[in-house]
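Example for tutorial group B:
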């Protein structure tokens, strides 16, 4: 496998596609999920400016069975049909299951897996190292290391250095809680010429200037055209204009998300889905324990989108 090519293909937006479910039984709706994939591709996302993550946190991985996670990845990869790279979310608490997920992901067409430190127990860095080593040796697939410091052990710079000894480590999806250590900046500086760095801290301007190659942005799920414009501004060095766009569109989205987290429920992907419904895309609620947000927050979400200038469908 050409791992340098896999590194080079992680560019632009890292798109966390939500998994769609049927109302009211909440079984998988793979047709609707396929339509979302097609929507982002038809509206400009492709190899070179985007990567799709199937079954990540926004894709409800934590509420799906093993077979469902594989089915979602297969549907996404099949719909993408080589037009945009596909990553399978493989977060789990079991090394054995991680390897099984990685093998299944490769079989159904994913080019990459996303791996984070096992959650629930406070695992050590050596635990994480051996966890990644096991899947690296077992499956010939690109690996994206995801630093989920809020659920498990945080990845240090020294630990990252050990990780990239494995040939199939192609990217680090990066955010850091240690602001005063400038760890966010130091990771990009250390590895930007060896791996793809994916900004997961919403610091698009700074990380782009420093050499990050990809950026997680929920907005792309419902407004990919806006994302292309933002990427063009950053690539042209028009950082003031790009920051104004982030202030106008991304900041209100996260403000509403924080409000919902404080007043109603927790999880990921539910606000993406509500915004997708409001622009006329297939949508659904997330599975429990995340509660349905649609009735209570639809009006606020519509107002937010209209104020941003998003292409909202008629009520």
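The residue assignment follows.
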């Amino acid at each position: 496998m050409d791992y340098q090519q896999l590194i080079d293909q992680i560019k632009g937006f890292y798109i966390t596609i939500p998994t769609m479910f049927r109302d009211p039984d909440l079984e998988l709706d793979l047709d609707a999920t396929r339509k979302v994939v097609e929507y982002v591709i038809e509206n400009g996302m492709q190899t070179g400016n985007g990567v799709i993550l199937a079954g990540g946190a926004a894709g409800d991985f934590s509420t799906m069975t093993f077979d469902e996670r594989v089915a979602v990845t297969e549907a996404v990869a099949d719909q993408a049909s080589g037009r945009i790279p596909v990553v399978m979310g493989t977060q789990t608490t079991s090394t054995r299951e991680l390897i099984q997920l990685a093998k299944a992901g490769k079989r159904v067409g994913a080019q990459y897996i996303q791996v984070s430190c096992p959650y629930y127990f406070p695992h050590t860095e050596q635990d994480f190292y051996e966890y990644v080593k096991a899947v690296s040796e077992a499956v010939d697939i690109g690996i994206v290391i995801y630093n989920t410091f809020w659920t498990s052990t945080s990845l240090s710079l020294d630990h990252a250095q050990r990780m990239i000894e494995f040939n199939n480590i192609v990217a680090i999806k990066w955010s850091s809680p240690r602001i005063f250590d400038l760890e966010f900046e130091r990771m990009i500086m250390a590895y930007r010429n060896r791996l793809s760095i994916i900004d997961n801290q919403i610091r698009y301007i700074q990380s782009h200037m420093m050499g990050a190659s990809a950026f997680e942005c929920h907005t792309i799920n419902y407004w990919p055209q806006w994302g292309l414009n933002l990427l063009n501004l950053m690539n042209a060095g028009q950082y003031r204009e790009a920051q104004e766009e982030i202030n106008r569109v991304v900041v209100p989205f996260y403000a509403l998300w924080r409000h919902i987290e404080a007043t109603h429920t927790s999880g990921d992907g539910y606000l993406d889905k509500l915004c997708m419904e409001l622009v006329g895309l297939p949508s659904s609620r997330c599975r429990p324990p995340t509660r349905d947000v649609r009735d209570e927050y639809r009006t606020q979400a519509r107002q937010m989108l209209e104020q941003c200038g998003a292409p909202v469908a008629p009520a």
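DSSP finds twelve helices and eight strands in the chain. Compare this with the pattern of hydrophobic and polar residues in the output above.
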